[in-house]
Amino acid sequence: MVKNLFIIDHPLIKRDLTYLRDKNTPSSMFRSILRRLTSLMVFEVTKDFEVSTREVETPLEVTQGYILKNEIVFVPILRAGLGMVDAFLEFIPEAKVGHIGLYRDEETLKPVDYYFKFPKNLDKSIIVILDPMLATGGSICTAISYLKERGAKKIKVVSLIAAPEGIDRLIKEHPDVQIYIAVLDRQLNQKGFILPGLGDAGDRIFGTEN
Ligand code: PRP
What we know:
The chain is built from six helices and 15 strands. By secondary structure, it is of the alpha/beta class.
């Protein structure tokens, strides 16, 4: 396996991905399954988070407890990344959330940015970028460059489905970033859609497909 690429392989993830791929899965179900599948990935993504010790008093005695050492910032890429935020916040409710608004121009396939809002201290935080789809990698690479320009040092990317083309680009442009995905699909088609994929995640989450 390529260093810094983690494919999270689990029977429940495989089953949930099948529901998401199914074109007959309605938006309401797509949203809840996306959230559940993201929850299944949280354990692996957060495995290397460091902890500090603190005392805790049980009903019987004082013992050693733990808190997360670093501030955590989740950064969903709008729109589809929004479908993954709640799953992460459920486990780390004290985390902050930054937003990056990007959409892919349908002709050029290049990302167009329209919104950025971040908490302070990006340099001292662990940043977790959320976007279910990693196709050409353009959106995620743009998001990473933007965050690095503002001081971010420790960045993880969590995506469900990736195309080999996007993974290659991401590893080349940002070899320091850890990438977590649920599956590596076959290829991109001429319109930049992942095959077999699941279609347009944003449209399927929000019911905006034509
Ligand atoms: C999709 C998807 C990613 C991006 C992936 O967003 O959610 O953000 O495309 O493609 P890339 O790796 O080639 O950049 P889209 O442009 O459809 O916007 P939306 O989430 O608002 O629907």
